[in-house]
C-alpha cells in the first residue's frame, strides 16, 4: 500500500476498500496506490485516482470508489450520488479519465501496458451490483459492489480477466503474454508513477547562500567593532565560527582608513595567506605570520627544518635584539593578533611590545582568540589568557557566542563530540540536516584508506568540487599522507594543503583559522589529552559537510555513514 496508511477522515468506502485490498490473501507482491494525485489529467486541470492496482502476472486496474448509500440517474443522463448535486459526469467517465491520464503518462515513457490487461472499474462499496443496471455507458464487468469487499483480490482478478478478453476481441494486435506484468515491470511502473528521489541543494547554490548569510550574519560582529572602536585595548574571545577573523580584517580596514600603520599577525601560513589576500589593497597594513615578521626585523631566514627551539627561543631573541636597539623606531600604530592563543608567550609578546607605539601597556590593539577550546599548540595548563592579561593591563574583554560559519548540525556535533556542548548560544546558519555529519568506524589502515576514498567519491557525487574538500588529521602521518606516499588508489588527492586543483589534505594545525565547504577528519583514534581540542578545531572548519573516520565507538554512535 502506497502510502502505507490512509487518513481516518477518508470517505467510508475508501477506508473499507483500503482495508480489503491491504488484507486480501495472495496479494503479497501487489502494489496498490491510493489517493494517487494526477497532475497531468487529460480532461481537467488535475485529478486523483482512489486506487491503482499493479498486480504481477495479472495486470493494472484503476478503481474509482463511491461509498454513497444512494445512487440514482435521470432521463437526462445525469447522476446524483447521495446528497451531492446532479452532474452530467458519471463515475465511469471519472474512472475512465483517471485511467487514460495514467496511460498517457506511461506511454510517454515507453511503459504503456503491452501483453497484459489494463483497465478501470467503479467500486460501489455500499450498494449491491444488481441495483446497477447494464447500460451503453459502461461495461457490466467494470462494476464492483459491497460484496467484493470480502474478496477484493478475486474481484480485481475477475475484472482484469474480463478486460483481457475484451481487449483480445476489440484491439488489433493485442496478445496476452504469460507472466506479464513481471515483478520487474511492476517495479518500473511504480517508480514511474511515484518516483523515489532525493533532491539536494547544489554546492554552488549552497556557497551563494552561505556568502549571503555571512554578509547578513556578521552584522553582529560589525556592532562589536563599533563597540570596541572606542576602547584602546580589547581582547575578543569566542569559540570557532563566531567571526573573529572577520573582525580582525574589518578592524584593519577601519584603522587603515584613518591612515594608521597596522600590523596584523597570526601563527600559521594559511591564515596569513588568507588575510593577506583580504587586505592586499591596503598600503598601510602589514599582514604576516609572527615568525615572518621576526625574520624581517632580524634580517635572517629560518633554517630548513628548524624546530620548536628555534621558533620559541632563538628567532624571538634575534628579532627582539634588533627591535630594542636605540635607533629602532616602533613601526606600527595599531596591532591586531588573530588566533592570539597561539602567540601568547612571553617571548612573542616581548617582540610585539617593541613593535607597537606605546607598547603593550599603552598602545592600541585588538587581540582575538579561543583560549579554552582551540589551544592546540600549547602544552601545559596555561591557555595564554593569563599571560595576555598580565602583559596588557586593563585590556577590555568582549565575548562572542553566535556561530555564523557552521550549520547547526555541524557545529553542535563538533561541540558534543569534543565534550564542549553549549559553547555557542545560537547558530545563525540554523538549518538542521541529518545528512550533514557522517561518522564511520575503521579498524585497520587499509580499511581507513578505502573509507577515505569512498568519502571523497561520495562528496564528489553530491556535487562538491575538489577544491571544496579538505582532509584533516591530528598529525602528519595520516591516511592521506600514506595514500600519497604509497600511491594508493584514493580519489583525486592533491599534493598537500595548498594544492587547490585537487582535494587538499594536511594537519588540523595547518588549517587552523580556515574553513571549507566539506571536511573529512581522519585518524581520529585514542584518547590523548589534546584530542578533544583537535576534534573541535578540525570539525569546526566544515561549513556545510563533515565526514569523520574514527576508531572510537563513542564518536561512531553519533552519526553513521550510510
What does this structure look like?
The chain is α/β, with parallel strands linked by helices and 562 residues long. It has three domains: 12-193, no CATH class; 219-403, P-loop containing nucleotide triphosphate hydrolases (Rossmann fold, 3-Layer(aba) Sandwich), CATH 3.40.50; 408-556, 3-Layer(aba) Sandwich (Rossmann fold), CATH 3.40.50.300. It has 18 helices and 20 strands. It has helices at residues 12-23, 91-107, 152-170, 183-193, 203-217, 219-228, 244-257, 269-278, 290-298, 308-323, 346-355, 359-362, 385-391, 408-417, 445-461, 479-486, 531-539, 553-556; strands at 31-38, 47-55, 59-66, 71-73, 79-81, 118-124, 143-144, 233-237, 262-266, 285-289, 334-337, 364-369, 396-399, 402-403, 426-427, 437-441, 469-473, 504-507, 516-524, 542-550. The protein has a six-stranded parallel sheet. α9 packs across α10 (308-323). The longest helix is centred in the first third of the chain and has 19 residues, at 152-170. The model has no long low-confidence stretch (mean pLDDT 89).
Amino acid at each position: 500500500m502506497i502510502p502505507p496508511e490512509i487518513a481516518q477522515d477518508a470517505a467510508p468506502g475508501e477506508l473499507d476498500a483500503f482495508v480489503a485490498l491491504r488484507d486480501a490473501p495472495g496479494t503479497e507482491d501487489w502494489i496498490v496506490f491510493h489517493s494517487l494525485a494526477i497532475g497531468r489529467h487529460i480532461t481537467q486541470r488535475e485529478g486523483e485516482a482512489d486506487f491503482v492496482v499493479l498486480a504481477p502476472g495479472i495486470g493494472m486496474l484503476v478503481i474509482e470508489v463511491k461509498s454513497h448509500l444512494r445512487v440514482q440517474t435521470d432521463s437526462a443522463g445525469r447522476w446524483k450520488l447521495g446528497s451531492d448535486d446532479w452532474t452530467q459526469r458519471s463515475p465511469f467517465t471519472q474512472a475512465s479519465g483517471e485511467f487514460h491520464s495514467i496511460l498517457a503518462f506511461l506511454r510517454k515513457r515507453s511503459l504503456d501496458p503491452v501483453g497484459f490487461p489494463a483497465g478501470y472499474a467503479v467500486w460501489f462499496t455500499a450498494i449491491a451490483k444488481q441495483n446497477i443496471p447494464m447500460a451503453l455507458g459502461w461495461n457490466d464487468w467494470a462494476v464492483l459492489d459491497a460484496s467484493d469487499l470480502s474478496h477484493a483480490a478475486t474481484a480485481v482478478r475477475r475484472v482484469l480477466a474480463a478486460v483481457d478478453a475484451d481487449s483480445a476481441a476489440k484491439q488489433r494486435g493485442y496478445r496476452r503474454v504469460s507472466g506479464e506484468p513481471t515483478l520487474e515491470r511492476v517495479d518500473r511502473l511504480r517508480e514511474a508513477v511515484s518516483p523515489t528521489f532525493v533532491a539536494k541543494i547544489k554546492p554552488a547554490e549552497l556557497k551563494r547562500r552561505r556568502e549571503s548569510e555571512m554578509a547578513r550574519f556578521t552584522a553582529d560582529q560589525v556592532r562589536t567593532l563599533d563597540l570596541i572602536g572606542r576602547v584602546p585595548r580589547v581582547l575578543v574571545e569566542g569559540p570557532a565560527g563566531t567571526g573573529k577573523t572577520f573582525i580582525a580584517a574589518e578592524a584593519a580596514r577601519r584603522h587603515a582608513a584613518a591612515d594608521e600603520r597596522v600590523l596584523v599577525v597570526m601563527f600559521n601560513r594559511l591564515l596569513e595567506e588568507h588575510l593577506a589576500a583580504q587586505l592586499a589593497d591596503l598600503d598601510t597594513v602589514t599582514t604576516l605570520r609572527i615568525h615572518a615578521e621576526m625574520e624581517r626585523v632580524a634580517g635572517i631566514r629560518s633554517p630548513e627544518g628548524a624546530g620548536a627551539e628555534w621558533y620559541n627561543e632563538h628567532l624571538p631573541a634575534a628579532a627582539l635584539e634588533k627591535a630594542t636597539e636605540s635607533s629602532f623606531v616602533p613601526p606600527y600604530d595599531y596591532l591586531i593578533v588573530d588566533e592570539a592563543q597561539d602567540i601568547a608567550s612571553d617571548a612573542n609578546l616581548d617582540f610585539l611590545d617593541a613593535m607597537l607605539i606605546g607598547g603593550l601597556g599603552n598602545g592600541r590593539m585588538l587581540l582575538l582568540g579561543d583560549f579554552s577550546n582551540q589551544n592546540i599548540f600549547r602544552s601545559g595548563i596555561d591557555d595564554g589568557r593569563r599571560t595576555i592579561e598580565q602583559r596588557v593591563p586593563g585590556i577590555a574583554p568582549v565575548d562572542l557566542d553566535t556561530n555564523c560559519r557552521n550549520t547547526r548540525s555541524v557545529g553542535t556535533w563538533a561541540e558534543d563530540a569534543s565534550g564542549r556542548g553549549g559553547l555557542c548560544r545560537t547558530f545563525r546558519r540554523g538549518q538542521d540536516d541529518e545528512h550533514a555529519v557522517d561518522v564511520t568506524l575503521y579498524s585497520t589502515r587499509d580499511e581507513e584508506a578505502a573509507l577515505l576514498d569512498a568519502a571523497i567519491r561520495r562528496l564528489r557525487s553530491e556535487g562538491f568540487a575538489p577544491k571544496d574538500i579538505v582532509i584533516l588529521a591530528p598529525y602528519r602521518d595520516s591516511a592521506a599522507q600514506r595514500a600519497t606516499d604509497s600511491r594508493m588508489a584514493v580519489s583525486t588527492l592533491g599534493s598537500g594543503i595548498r594544492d587547490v586543483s585537487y582535494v587538499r589534505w594536511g594537519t588540523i594545525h595547518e588549517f587552523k583559522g580556515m574553513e571549507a565547504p566539506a571536511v573529512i577528519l581522519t585518524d581520529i583514534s585514542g584518547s590523548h589529552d589534546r584530542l578533544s581540542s583537535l576534534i573541535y578545531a578540525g570539525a569546526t572548519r566544515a561549513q556545510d559537510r563533515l565526514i569523520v573516520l574514527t576508531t572510537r565507538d563513542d564518536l561512531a554512535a553519533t552519526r553513521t555513514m550510510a
